[in-house]
């Protein structure tokens, strides 16, 4: 007897939170339908509003309670961080390990504080408004509550790396300035993230809609025999079984029929399944859109329920668009985070096992294990086998713990441990990859480099650069001292180890001039800068005067005339070639109005084409006057366009024109032009054979033929107004520019017979182009004359300066330009200056003294300020004239009293000590450094700083080198274990749907078989697969590759063998290569596609579920089916297809069957995985593809191929403007097609049976498009 699957009624008597309310509404919806559910929802809303109003819950600052344990926790955590820093300072851990440990410490503290907040609210204040709000689902979440009353925690910088300085405050306490700046980093990243996410999610939805818009429920039942077992579904939970139909009858364990085929799986049926005492997941077969054999659609039975009303989907439902929207809409809820923390939290990848009690730990010491260093710098054992631990306390209580194989054991047998101490780390099941990263180590003090226990080898990179790396773990020491870069010691005999008394000279550097000349000291007292005048030029026929406005004027006498120039540059200014010193005060070329300037009498149309001004300019300017007035803020014009006005007419309010003429108004530019001249109207008789182009007319020539003759040079401008032609005869002013030089500059050079390294010349400059319109009403200078500097390139390193030398007799100045060689003594002193050194300068010249080249002008002497020791001397590679020295001062040495005790035997001169190293039986070293001196009662230590480096570190310094504070010592090269799901959320979904190539791919098994790992002598590995049919396959791998199997494990085809990401393209290729050896081509394609489809659906669903988003499998199945429905032709056989052609798999399967039946050669093809963009562009409808992307290419190809669009989808019908074949439009089209199909079938019955394969293909094409 079959069980009854009716309605379910359940009684709820518990706290209704957000999830419970959701379940309650879902049950109401299932049992009572949409109308009653709406009424229930409305009543629940009124009920909650009523009590919320009565309760009067509101949040005040007092409700934000900070846990009492926070201060204590921050203190403990800070101590732990300080201990980690001390371990780093003494060279116990590397900088990477310190960073990782610090981040993990704060992360654990943050999580502990979060638990404390929850415990406090739950146990002490359950009615706290904040707690009620966050945990009822009204607003807020645990993360926000933690930031309000716990601590804000760790933030990431703009590059995505975690800042190891956490925000210890919360928003209740308030952030200090530093915390606020760090906080704003993370907050801004969140805002940008949201903005980008919205755009990306929208574009993803568009692509999904495009790929699935033609999937419509067109059939009742496709009649397929294919199905999916529950085990094969991506989501094996009841949520995704609900609404599906059984593909086969389901029998109980006793063989009794429970449900026939095509039974709908509802809530009651699922409840029945849960009570079964056998595993039904292999025997229960369901229908799926993946297995539907309907062409370009899904049938009702394969799709199942329409999830919005829990009933079988209607015919004509556009399920493709529903699927696209269901996947695209939650995109904004996904993160776009790409994790890059400089190392992942170990807590994310490992599960920590802590001791529940204090006591002694014991385990089997013969367990197979290898030494291992954790990412926190702890030494532990990686156990090869599972291990059983016993922890016994002082009371005799024993607790046993089981540690699985491949775990990290962090304690020794018989070791005393305390409560809550980490005993082991168990690696979580995650797809991991080892990624190489680099981090520079910088010196934190100046000093001398010393390598301790480093095995160095030289390597060459691909570019041929040589670099050094160390092969083992060791220390780089920086032995402290003050670093100086000084000139070579002139005559001083100093060696390393020399004792330096106060004022001992370290270097003497002479300052020598390059060119001969006269000394000029800028500051007689400090003598900070010495200038040597090497060359000068004085203008004999010029003096500089000062007018009543205190402006300096150059008076230049040339012939019998005196010309005045404005001085444009101040005295003692630096000059360069082309600088203008003076401007001639001259109004010869100044106009009274704005206007147009021309260089020749050619027509404007011809002259504007010529580019060279030199060839165009003939020594004359031709000026056509016109005034331009600009209106501001829509001020009304006082004149009209076309008016003829007199001088003094008001143009704009309180603006009067000094000239008369024709008014032209430009409304767009808000300009008024006044053009002087006479206006003549031209009649039809006078314009026959008359040149109507704008042009100049010479005196004596006709302006209007046989009527008006020009008395002077004029410009004709032709105008058209109200259908009549007019000519405006405009006056022209001619300015002559003489070619001969009328100004002469007499110059005296010093030294007299030297080359003219600098001189002054007269230059005339024109600032306007030919036929340039100057929009003004004030007048402009068409040409100006300047005094210009001209320097030669022979002594370019010398500085030219303008000098004014005062005349004692009169209040005038002489004009001179001099070339100076500058020697900056201050810079030399600054190079050598340091608080520990004394720099003194001795001068050997006086102001005004003449000196020859290579004269010793001064000497900079550097001496020590106090008694010290010279530790080291190195000649720099960059400049042999300089030496690097290291001086030891009293601050670099520390004395340790021995208090009469005897030193241990291994403490000797030169030994390197770390903090805590035993010196005697009772005394430990309080400093890190080198033993510098041993006396009877004390020890002198030279301070040092050790840096631990790991194997493979790139070294940038040599042992014995001298370094400054902040110099790069080495680059740590370290492997970080990361999850392969570094790209998460929306980018991950996009990567899967677009079927992109992935990095860090895993190695996939080419066939099923037993796997074994073998290592070669050169440390490379080989994975050997012994196939079920006896075939042996060897796959080489790199030495550091992590495998995912144990020797002897059985793997299936395309199973991952190593850590990494699975490339869907590679998976499909391997599956097809394997299956085509075992099955027919059609079956191999079908099995390959099915396997890949299930993989893709699982990966997409995993990404959404990790973000708390639930999507029904059937939506993803529809999209994935579109991505895996094409094949690529490799060999056409006897068909008309071309190699490389992409076709539908269903069509190719039908063609292959037809070819085999006729005994002809079927085409060869391989399955193809297309991303949603490619799938859209390869759509059967070229109208749909062209409206998506690459419109020109798609339409061109469609036109060349003569393709037809059968308008099956929604999009192409919308574009054409037809009724869409979905919803109410579905029935109309179906009736039309049914009539056509009946006619076709009648015609086909009378056709001959003797058809070729080509004709069969054409028939199939016609039928498949209906």
TrEMBL record:
KW Transferase (keyword) present: yes
Domain RNA polymerase Rpb1 per the UniProt entry, residue ranges: 11-64, 93-172, 174-457, 1088-1177
Entry's Gene Ontology cellular component terms: chloroplast; DNA-directed RNA polymerase complex
Record-linked Pfam families: RNA_pol_Rpb1_3 (PF04983), RNA_pol_Rpb1_4 (PF05000), RNA_pol_Rpb1_5 (PF04998)
Subcellular location: Plastid, Chloroplast
Taxonomy, superkingdom: Eukaryota
SUPFAM superfamilies: beta and beta-prime subunits of DNA dependent RNA-polymerase
Biological process terms in GO annotation: DNA-templated transcription
Chemical reaction(s) catalysed: RNA(n) + a ribonucleoside 5'-triphosphate = RNA(n+1) + diphosphate
Residue stretches in coiled coil: none
Keywords, sorted A to Z: Chloroplast, DNA-directed RNA polymerase, Metal-binding, Nucleotidyltransferase, Plastid, Transcription, Transferase, Zinc
EC number(s) from the headed UniProt entry: 2.7.7.6
Enzyme class: transferase
Cofactor note: Binds 1 Zn(2+) ion per subunit.
Presence of the UniProt keyword Plastid in the record: yes
Role: DNA-dependent RNA polymerase catalyzes the transcription of DNA into RNA using the four ribonucleoside triphosphates as substrates.
Name the UniProt record assigns to this protein: DNA-directed RNA polymerase subunit beta''
Protein source organism: Isochrysis galbana (Marine planktonic alga)
Gene that specifies this protein: rpoC2
């Amino acid at each position: 007897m079959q069980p009854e699957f009716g309605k379910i009624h359940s009684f709820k008597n518990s706290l209704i939170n957000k999830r419970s309310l959701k379940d309650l509404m879902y049950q109401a919806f299932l049992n009572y339908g949409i109308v009653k559910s709406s009424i229930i929802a409305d009543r629940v809303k009124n009920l909650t509003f009523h009590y919320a109003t009565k309760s009067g819950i509101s949040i005040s600052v007092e409700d934000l309670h900070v846990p009492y344990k926070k201060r204590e926790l921050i203190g403990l955590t800070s101590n732990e961080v300080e201990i980690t820093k001390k371990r780093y300072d003494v060279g116990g851990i590397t900088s990477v390990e310190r960073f990782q440990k610090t981040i993990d410490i704060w992360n654990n503290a943050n999580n502990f504080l979060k638990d404390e907040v929850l415990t406090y609210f739950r146990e002490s204040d359950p009615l706290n408004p904040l707690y009620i709000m966050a945990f009822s689902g009204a607003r807020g979440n645990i993360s926000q509550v933690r930031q309000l009353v716990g601590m804000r925690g760790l933030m990431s910088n703009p590059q995505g790396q975690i800042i190891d300085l956490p925000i210890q405050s919360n928003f209740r306490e308030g952030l200090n300035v530093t915390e606020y700046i760090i906080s704003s980093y993370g907050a801004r990243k969140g805002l940008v993230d949201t903005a980008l996410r919205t755009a990306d999610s929208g574009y993803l939805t568009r692509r999904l809609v495009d790929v699935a818009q033609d999937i419509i429920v067109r059939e009742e039942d496709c009649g397929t025999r294919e199905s999916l077992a529950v085990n094969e579904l991506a989501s094996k939970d009841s949520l995704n079984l609900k609404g599906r139909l059984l593909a086969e009858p389901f029998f109980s364990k006793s063989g009794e029929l429970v449900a026939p085929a095509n039974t709908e799986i509802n809530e009651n049926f699922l409840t029945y399944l849960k009570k079964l005492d056998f595993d039904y997941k292999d025997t229960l077969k369901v229908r799926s859109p993946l297995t539907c054999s309907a062409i370009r659609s899904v049938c009702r039975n394969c799709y199942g329920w329409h999830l919005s009303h829990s009933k079988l989907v209607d015919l004509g439902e556009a399920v493709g668009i529903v699927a696209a929207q269901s996947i695209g809409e939650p995109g904004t809820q996904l993160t776009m985070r790409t994790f890059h923390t400089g190392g992942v939290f170990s807590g994310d990848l490992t599960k920590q096992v802590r001791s529940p009690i204090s006591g002694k730990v014991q385990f089997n010491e013969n367990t197979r294990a290898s030494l291992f260093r954790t990412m926190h710098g702890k030494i532990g054992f990686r156990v090869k086998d599972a291990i059983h631990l016993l922890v016994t306390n002082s009371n005799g209580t024993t607790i046993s713990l089981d540690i699985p194989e491949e775990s990290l054991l962090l304690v020794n047998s018989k070791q005393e441990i305390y409560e809550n101490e980490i005993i082991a780390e168990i690696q979580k099941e995650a797809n991991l990859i080892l990624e190489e990263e680099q981090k520079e180590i910088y010196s934190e003090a100046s000093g001398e480099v010393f390598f301790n226990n480093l095995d160095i080898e030289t390597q060459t990179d691909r570019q041929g650069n040589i670099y050094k790396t160390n092969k083992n773990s060791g220390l780089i020491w920086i032995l402290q001292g003050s670093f100086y870069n000084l000139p070579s010691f002139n005559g001083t005999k100093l060696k390393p180890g020399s004792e330096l008394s106060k004022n001992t000279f370290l270097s003497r550097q002479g300052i020598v001039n390059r060119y001969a000349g006269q000394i000029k000291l800028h500051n007689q007292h400090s003598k900070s800068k010495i200038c040597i005048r090497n060359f000068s030029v004085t203008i004999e026929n010029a003096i500089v005067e000062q007018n009543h406005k205190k402006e300096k004027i150059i008076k230049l006498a040339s012939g019998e005339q005196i010309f005045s120039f404005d001085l444009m540059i101040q005295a003692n200014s630096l000059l360069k070639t082309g600088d203008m010193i003076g401007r001639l005060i001259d109004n010869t070329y100044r106009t009274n109005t704005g206007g147009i300037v021309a260089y020749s009498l050619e027509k404007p149309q011809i002259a504007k084409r010529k580019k060279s001004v030199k060839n165009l300019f003939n020594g004359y300017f031709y000026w056509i006057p016109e005034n331009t007035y600009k209106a501001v803020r829509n001020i009304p014009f006082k004149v009209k366009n076309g008016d003829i006005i007199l001088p003094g007419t008001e143009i704009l309010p309180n603006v009067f024109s000094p000239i008369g003429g024709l008014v032209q108004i430009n409304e767009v530019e808000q300009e008024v032009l006044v053009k002087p001249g006479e206006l003549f109207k031209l009649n039809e008789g006078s314009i026959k054979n008359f040149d109507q182009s704008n042009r100049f007319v010479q005196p004596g020539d006709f302006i209007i033929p046989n009527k008006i003759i020009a008395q002077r040079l004029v410009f004709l401008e032709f105008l058209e107004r109200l259908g009549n032609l007019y000519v405006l005869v405009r006056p022209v002013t001619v300015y002559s520019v003489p070619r001969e030089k009328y100004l002469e500059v007499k110059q005296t050079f010093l030294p007299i017979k030297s080359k003219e390294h600098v001189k002054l010349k007269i230059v005339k400059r024109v600032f306007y182009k030919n036929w340039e319109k100057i929009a003004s009403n004030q007048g402009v200078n068409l040409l100006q004359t300047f005094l210009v500097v001209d320097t030669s390139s022979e002594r370019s390193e010398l500085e030219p300066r303008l000098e004014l030398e005062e005349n004692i007799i009169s209040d005038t100045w002489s004009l001179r330009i001099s070339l100076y060689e500058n020697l900056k003594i201050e810079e030399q002193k600054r190079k050598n200056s340091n608080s520990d050194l004394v720099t003194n300068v001795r001068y050997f010249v006086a102001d005004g003294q003449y000196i020859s080249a290579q004269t010793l002008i001064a000497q900079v002497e550097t001496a020590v300020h106090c008694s010290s020791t010279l530790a080291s001397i190195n000649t720099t590679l960059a400049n042999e004239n300089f030496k690097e020295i290291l001086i030891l001062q009293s601050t670099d040495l520390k004395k340790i009293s021995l208090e009469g005790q005897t030193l241990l035997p291994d403490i000797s001169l030169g030994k390197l000590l770390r903090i805590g190293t035993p010196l005697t039986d009772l005394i430990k070293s309080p400093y890190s450094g080198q033993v510098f001196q041993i006396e009877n009662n004390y020890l002198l230590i030279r301070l040092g700083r050790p840096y631990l480096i790991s194997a493979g570190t790139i070294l940038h310094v040599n042992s014995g080198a001298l370094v400054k504070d902040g110099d790069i010592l080495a680059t740590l090269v370290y492997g970080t274990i990361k999850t392969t799901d570094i790209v998460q959320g929306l980018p991950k979904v996009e990567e899967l749907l677009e079927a992109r190539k992935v990095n860090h791919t895993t190695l996939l098994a080419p066939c099923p078989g037993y796997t074994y790992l073998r290592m070669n002598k050169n440390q490379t590995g080989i994975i050997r697969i012994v196939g079920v049919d006896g075939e042996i396959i060897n796959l080489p791998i790199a030495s550091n590759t992590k495998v995912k199997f144990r020797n002897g494990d059985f793997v299936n085809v395309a199973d991952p063998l190593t850590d990494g990401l699975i490339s869907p393209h590679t998976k499909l290729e391997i599956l097809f290569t394997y299956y085509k050896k075992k099955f027919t081509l059609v079956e191999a394609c079908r099995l390959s596609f099915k396997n890949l489809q299930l993989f893709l659906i699982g990966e997409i669903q995993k990404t959404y579920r990790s973000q708390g988003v639930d999507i029904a499998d059937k939506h993803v199945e529809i999209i994935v089916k579109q991505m895996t429905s094409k094949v690529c032709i490799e060999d056409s056989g006897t068909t008309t297809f071309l190699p490389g052609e992409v076709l539908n798999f269903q069509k190719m399967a039908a063609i292959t069957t037809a070819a085999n039946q006729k005994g002809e050669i079927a085409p060869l093809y391989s399955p193809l995985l297309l991303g949603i963009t490619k799938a859209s562009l390869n759509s059967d409808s070229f109208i749909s593809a062209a409206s998506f992307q690459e419109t020109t290419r798609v339409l061109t190809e469609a036109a060349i191929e003569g393709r037809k669009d059968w308008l099956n989808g929604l999009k192409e019908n919308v574009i054409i403007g037809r009724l869409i074949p979905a919803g109410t439009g579905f029935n109309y089209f179906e009736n039309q097609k049914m009539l056509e199909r009946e006619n076709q079938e009648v015609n086909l019955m009378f056709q001959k049976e003797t058809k070729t394969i080509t004709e069969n293909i054409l028939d199939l094409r016609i039928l498949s498009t209906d």
